[in-house]
Amino acid sequence: DHDNFIYFLGVAIPSYICYLMGTVVGYHFGVRIPAGFDEGISLIFPAYLTALLAAELKERRSIVVVGVAFLATPVVETLVPGWGLILNAIVVATAAIGVEAWWESALPSS
Q1: CA-CA distances (angstroms) from residue 11 to 17, 19, 66, 87, 110?
Q2: How many CA atoms lie within 13 A of 17 on its CB side?
Q3: What tens digit of pLDDT does each residue of 21-72 get?
Q4: Looking at residue 13, what is its pLDDT?
Q5: Which of 37, 38, 51, 84 could be joined to 76 by an S-S link, Cβ 3.0–4.6 Å?
Q6: Counting beta carbons within 10 angstroms of the beta carbon of residue 88, is it exposed (0 to 12), middle (13 to 18) or buried (19 or more)?
Q7: Using one digit for the tens of pLDDT, what is the confidence trace for 63-96?
């Protein structure tokens, strides 16, 4: 188990160094971004996350959850500016888990 520790230490140290270097580079170059580009850059994270999640949409339930979240996010963002994306993700995901658990319990057991 000492070998596992050494292995994970070997994985963690380079990852942490890259994280620190990326943070330093981002901090120094981030302050140099022209005023007009900050809005476009703020769309990169949601677009990247959407692209990653799109590959996981294989079931109808998943597509419905994503659709509800997509439609509800602008409304929640309007109600709670700055927190709409994360708050909506938490609420929709929790509701989806609850509905799925309810649905599974409502099905007759075989």
Answers
A1: 11, 13, 33, 32, 45
A2: 6
A3: 999 998 998 888 887 787 787 788 778 877 887 887 888 888 888 888 888 9
A4: 96
A5: 84
A6: buried
A7: 888 888 888 988 999 999 989 888 998 999 899 9
| φ/ψ bin of 20: left (φ > 0), alpha (ψ from -120 to 50), beta (otherwise) | alpha
The tokens describing 52, both together, are 């990653």
**Distance (Å, whole) CA 19 – CA 13:** 10
CA separation for the pair 7, 11 (Å, rounded):
6
Place of tokens 């230490």: 9
Token representation of residue 16: 């942490």
Q: In this structure, what token pair is assigned to residue 75?
A: 């409304």
Model confidence, pTM? 0.51
CB half-sphere exposure, 26, CA atoms < 13 A: 7
Contact between 62 and 56 (Cβ < 8 Å):
yes
